[in-house]
Amino acid sequence: MQINSVSPIDWAIDMLDEAKTAEDVQTVLRCSARAAVQAQGVTVVQLEDGQCHYLDEDAMSPLWKGQRFPAESCISGWAMLNDQTVTIRDIRTDSRIPQAAYRPTFVRSLLMVPIRVAGSPVGAIGAYWADLHQASHEEVAVLERLAAAAGRALTKVSALAGRSGADRSPADGALAV
Q: Which of 24, 69, 106, 123 has the most CB atoms at less than 10 Å from its CB?
C-alpha cells in the first residue's frame, strides 16, 4: 500500500485552489497557518475602509477576532498599506505595535504577511509566538505561499460570485475582494 505524502502546506494550497467562497478561504487559512509555522496563534485580517477587521483566529487564547482597528495604527495595517511582510522578534520594542492592544495577549513575536488580489493588499495573515522568536526564512516563505494562494483563491471566488450574480460584502464577515 502506498501512502500519500502530501505536505500540509501543499494540502492547504490544494484546498485554497478548490475554495468556492470567501468563507472557505478564511477557514483554510485559519486551520492551516498556525501549524504551518508552529505558532501559538494566527489571525486572518481584512483591509476594509481604512480599517483592519480581524475576521478570524486560531490561538492559544483570544486575540482580536471581530475587532476593528485603524489601518494606520496596527501592524497588520502597516503590512498591508506598505505591501510588505513584517517580522518582529520583540513586539515590546517596535514602535509600529499598539502596545495597549497587545498587552493583555500572549503575543511576544510576530510575522505578518499581506494577502494580495490583483497586486494590491486586501488582507493579511498574522502568526504570533508567546516567546521571543525570529521568524525563519522558511516560516516567512510558507506564510507567503499561503497568502499568495489565498489571493488567487479570492480572485477566483470573486469571479464565481460575479458570474452567479451573488453580491458579497465585507459585512458578511468573510474576506472579500
A: 123
